[in-house]
Design a protein that fits this description.
Elements (H helix, E strand, L loop, with lengths): L1 H11 L4 H6 L5 H14 L11 H8 L16 H9 L4 H11 L6 H14 L15 E13 L5 E11 L5 E6 L4 H15 L5 E4 L6 E3 L6 E2 L1 H10 L2 E4 L9 H15 L7 H18 L9 H8 L15 E6 L5 E4 L2 E4 L8 E6 L3 E6 L2 E7 L7 E2 L7 H8 L2 H11 L1 H11 L7 H9 L1 H4 L1 H13 L5 H10 L24 H4 L3 H6 L1
Parallel strand pairs: 1-4, 4-7, 10-14
Antiparallel strand pairs: 1-2, 2-3, 5-6, 8-11, 9-10, 11-12, 12-13
């Protein structure tokens, strides 16, 4: 409005429209229109103060466009404004107009109208947050370089970055994945790196931390909640689609990619992490930060005493998983089988896995704990978890049979030993069957039956049972001794007698 005020001042001094145009304030026609408008408002009176910019703008009104400048998209302005508010790009809007509304205009027309719409929208603003020492840390993952995995295949690495919001001091660790176990382990090592714990940790909504994202009521990963409780920090998730709430660590990740990863070579993951730690303590920690205008390590020295101390005993960090109980009374986790009580067959349990142990819960009721299996296919079982019939079967092993037979008598012991010494056939069930005859017939009759069976050279379950069922064990006669080889060897004569040596045949 400056040129209108200058033209009005010259009009009060008696200058003509030609002279105002010669001063290049405005054209003669526009000067004449402005003189007429000023006269109607009483502004040509030199005794009156000059109007302010607001009064001049109100008198002039909104500028009128020429009919040739009105966009053919004006009928669709509201639709385009709604698309802009949804974040739809200009090229997508142009394609949608052609596809849905048969509009034949150019993309330039779309771009001009979108620019006009954006000018009328309220400007995007941001608010810089200040953090007290020890108040918060921000965490994020960033893409790292591709390295050769221990399995021999090239794989993408990921940079775990935790930045203290006050000092901007960082912890950086490159990992192979973004699993819950990796997430928890990185937190443990970051707190040990800082030698303290911040009051809260600001994160995004990654699945390893938040199972259900929500601005008002997010659901935290069960294992991460245990980690927060063990170390004494609060989890502060950002609202969905609002990364500015953790802009400090995002700037740190960007600085890591541009300053550290660029123009460097790494042999393996260990070399990558070693160089990263040296870079954090060197270049990154001693630079003058662009926001704080201080060196991060200098501010970290002041922030360290205000961090929460590490717990005396490090929390036992574990991951939680849902598992189903199979018919064999076992659950499977990472290709290892773990037993649970047989009454839980068909149910779904919670499994908590640490580096050393695996614990199983029915809701919050503890049902079993096992040492962590070491190899795929391993079966980690507790006999008491099996059904009674299975417990009885597995409990009556060779050692049990030998002990029971010795308690019955020497004849029974000798017979059981012969059964179990068979090199061809597994006779454990036969031994169990003979010992089961103790209940209906008693110790003395079973011992006598075993003695008679041995005398006949027939140490078999069927023989012992037949002797008992027929009462032969009660007879006073002693059965004739049977050659020891009877019933156990196929030939009663020596093989040399049946097959003489060929050289002996030639001698005769």
């Amino acid at each position: 409005m400056h040129h209108y005020r200058q033209a009005l001042l010259r009009m009060r001094q008696g200058e003509s429209d030609r002279e105002i145009a010669a001063a290049r304030l405005m054209g003669r026609r526009k000067a004449a229109q402005w003189r007429e408008l000023a006269a109607s408002q009483g502004w040509l009176d030199a005794q009156q103060p000059l109007p302010d910019d607001a009064a001049i703008a109100e008198a002039l009104g909104a500028p009128r466009r020429a009919c040739t400048t009105v966009s053919t998209l004006e009928p669709h302005r509201e639709l385009l404004q709604s698309w802009v508010e949804q974040g739809v790009t200009g090229t997508a809007i142009h394609a949608a107009l052609k596809r849905q509304h048969a509009w034949a205009g150019s993309y330039s027309a779309v771009r001009r109208l979108l620019a006009d719409i954006r000018r009328q929208l309220p400007p995007e603003t941001t608010c810089r947050l200040d953090f007290e020492p020890g108040d918060a840390a921000q965490v994020d993952f960033g893409a790292g370089p591709v390295l050769i995995h221990p399995d021999g295949q090239p794989r993408r690495t990921w940079a775990f970055v935790m930045t203290l919001a006050h000092s901007r001091h960082q912890y950086v660790e490159f990992v192979w994945d973004q699993t819950v176990a990796t997430w928890l382990g990185c937190h443990r090592r970051a707190f040990e790196w800082f030698a303290g714990v911040p009051a809260r940790v600001i994160i995004d909504n990654a699945k390893c931390a938040i199972t259900r994202a929500c601005a008002q009521d997010p659901t935290v990963q069960r294992a991460y909640a245990e980690c927060a409780e063990g170390y004494g920090f609060k989890i502060d998730p950002c609202p969905p689609h609002d990364p500015q709430k953790k802009g400090i660590v995002e700037s740190g990740v960007k600085y890591l990619k541009g300053n550290f990863l660029a123009l460097r070579e790494f042999r393996d993951l260990a070399d990558l992490n070693a160089q990263a730690k040296a870079w954090v303590l060197g270049e990154a920690g001693t630079r003058c930060h662009g926001t704080t205008r201080r060196r991060p390590l200098d501010l970290f020295t002041l922030e360290t005493p205000l961090l929460q101390p590490l717990p005396g005993v490090a929390p036992d960090l574990g991951t939680w998983h849902r598992v189903s109980v199979h018919r064999d009374c076992h659950v499977q986790f990472e290709r290892v089988l773990y037993s649970v009580p047989f009454a839980l067959v068909g149910k779904t349990l919670w499994l908590r896995a640490t580096d050393a142990a695996v614990a199983l819960f029915e809701d919050y009721r503890h049902v079993a704990t096992h040492a962590r299996g070491l190899r795929p296919g391993q079966r980690v079982s507790v006999r008491s978890h099996l059904p009674p019939e299975a417990q009885a079967f597995f409990g009556r092993d060779r050692a049990w049979c030998a002990t029971q037979a010795e308690a019955i008598g020497p004849q029974c012991k000798a017979l059981i030993e012969q059964l179990l010494s068979d090199n061809i056939l597994e006779r454990l069930r036969a031994a169990q069957g003979i010992l089961a005859l103790l209940k209906p017939y008693g110790r003395e009759r079973l011992e006598a039956a075993c003695a008679r069976a041995l005398a006949h050279g027939s140490p078999h379950y069927r023989t012992v049972k037949t002797i008992l069922s027929t009462g032969a064990d009660l007879r006073a006669d002693t059965p004739p001794a049977t050659p020891s080889g009877y019933g156990r060897t196929r030939f009663t004569r020596a093989a040399a007698e049946l097959f003489p040596h060929p050289q002996q045949e030639l001698l005769h």
